[in-house]
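Before relying on records like the one below, remember that each one covers exactly one chain. Contacts with other chains, cofactors or solvent are not represented anywhere in the record.
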Amino acid sequence: MIRSAVLVALVVTAAVIAKKSRDGEKPSWAKKDISSYTEADMERLLDQWEEDEEPLEPDELPEHLRPPINIDPTLLGSDPDAMLKLSKKGKTLMTFVKVSPKYNKDDVDKITKIWQSSLWNNHIQAERFMVDDNRAIFMYKDGSQAWDAKDFLIQQEDCVDVTIENQVYKGPASPFVEGNVEKVEL
């Protein structure tokens, strides 16, 4: 009984202390009609709204506000791909995948769709966008998955190459297009 009385007293005390202003008392900017609010008034209103909210967990923050991952290079050895893979963890990453030019656009679309399904079945979440007749972009919300996907894609017989972070990884179909190298200028 005493516990519940103390608990009720604490809750009432917290409610009284937590109240921002007394009834009827508002700052001068809050008394204005909402249609006449300026940008500064809207910012103050937003600040007041977010004042009591708890901060978001690091994985819930937008990508550009997440804290960087600490990487210990001594644990990785001399594998540069492992360091890149760790540095892209939790960040969006896009890779370019080129398919053998012997297929038309519809066939390339079907082939990359099958590859995307295979990646999803292996718990690698990739979004696919066609950018050319024989080229697609695979986008990963967790960039560290791109290297696992690359290992799968360069084993496919119709894959010419996979490009991750300006590094080109050749696939089995690359010897068939060696003489036909395209130079892309930005």
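The longest strand covers residues 93-99.
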